[in-house]
Amino acid sequence: MENTRKSSIEISKEEFRKIGHQLIDDISDFIDSIDQKPVTPNESPGQLQNLLGHSQLPEAGKPAAELISKATELLFNHSLLNGHPKFFGYITSSAAPIGALADLLAASVNPNVGAHILSPIATEIEKQTIAWLAEFIGVSPSYGGLLVSGGNMANFTAFLAARTAKAPKTVKEDGLGNASKKLTVYCSTTTHTWVEKAAILFGLGTKSVRWIQTDASNKMDTKVLEATIAADLKNDCKPIMVIGTAGDVSTGVVDNLDAIAIICQKHDLWFHIDGAYGVPAAVVPKFNYLFEGIKEADSIALDPHKWLYSPLEAGCTLVRNPQHLIDTFSSHPEYYNFSNGGDETTQNFYEYGLQNSRGFRALKVWLALQQVGRSGYEKLISEDIELSQMLFDLAEKHPELEAVSQNLSITTFRYVPLKNSKDNNYLNALNEALLNELQAGGEVFLSNAIVNEKYCLRACIVNFRTSQKDIEEIIEIIIQSGRRANLNRSQTEKG
Ligand SMILES: *Cc1c(COP(=O)(O)O)cnc(C)c1O
User: Fold this and answer.
1) Which of 93, 191, 249, 455 is positioned for an S-S bond with 428, CB 3.0–4.6 A?
2) Which atom from ligand 1 is nearest to the alpha carbon of 246?
3) Confidence of residue 374 (pLDDT cuts 50, 70, 90)
4) N6-(pyridoxal phosphate)lysine-modified residues are where (predicted)?
5) What confidence tens digit (pLDDT) does each residue in 54-65 have?
6) Ligand 1 in contact with 152 (CB < 6 A)?
7) Which fold does the domain 112-360 belong to in CATH?
8) Whole-prediction pTM value?
């Protein structure tokens, strides 16, 4: 028998080097010319299925070089490019190139960041990243936490910690069935859908979510919050937490965090901030005032894969007293021998959240934080906000556009034809048709928001590639498409 095993999945040093160099060359060209490509090729699922063919699971193997080259071609030419300077849809950022290199490096070493012994340096890097993120948003670096896949998971992690802390002590053993009072949670009507999933997942049920209406500025109405808590207490419920949003998904509004913090203190409630999108703006001194009260939060969710420009996936949960995470998630099965050789600072991340085996997400975040530094991020985030304000101003000045809202880096606006109906139903249908046309057109990618019953075009700029020129150009693109869409609609309505 040969004593060296030949594994078909191994790639020789020479071949790896060759394929890798080619791939890096191709990626460099791709990033360098990304603005020359359509934002999306707008192909149907059927077209893409045809491209992949209907062949079965391969029986025999193929050379890695051929496969990587084919995959490169598929991804570069058949993807929606959220790294394009005119991509402003949803809240998805252009990915920092250093993040791509970081992911390659992380995957090559492949530490399992579930336990310190399995990932010695990676665990320490993640701990440092968490402390830096806390410092970044202006809370004490003694906050603890972990990186997760995204905003939903970051909020879920905090939600379960809040439940453990505020529900009856036996909740971990007995579940909610034995709780004598109905547990209730509070958030504004603008809160992201994760809260419903959390209520289902963690056994409270969706009826336990009290959706608090917003005031004229679209922030949670804290008077209504107070009154709702008081009514629930009278009705023998047990309020456990209030969720403040720092940058709502539709329009970027930040709740009055300070006022919510005071109410939480008064009633001994867990104060959670969903800052998945907006909380990094706290790094900009000019916007500090929006985030007053953040230091009072028991937990905060933020998404490095949004405004810190990390490639997907990277979310983060920060908890003021990290012991709450351990109380919630720690267990010590007999098959783990993770205390060996450690000291009192040994941290095993599996005890901090829902995941067990964990990838090295922290590396891409840690490297980008150092590549540009705090001041670099302050500049990038400020510029995104300025571009968003510029878009609002241009829309306001244009006779065929109506500027509707502008908060953080989200602008909403709509096309309003000079002649023709100004009826709101007509404008809503027109702008919906316009958005569909723009999304299919591939010149610019926007999403939508409904603001005061107006169907709006929505641009969220978390994009370090966008410049003033892009903003000026998209105004033109929208006007041309808007006129066409209006002509089509007014003709169909007549016909
Ligand atoms: C994006 C977002 C989420 C969801 O985050 P994912 O990373 O998409 O899971 C939750 N809350 C807010 C405020 C968000 O902006």
Assistant:
1) 455
2) 13
3) very high
4) 306
5) 889 999 999 999
6) yes
7) Aspartate Aminotransferase; domain 2 (3.40.640)
8) 0.96
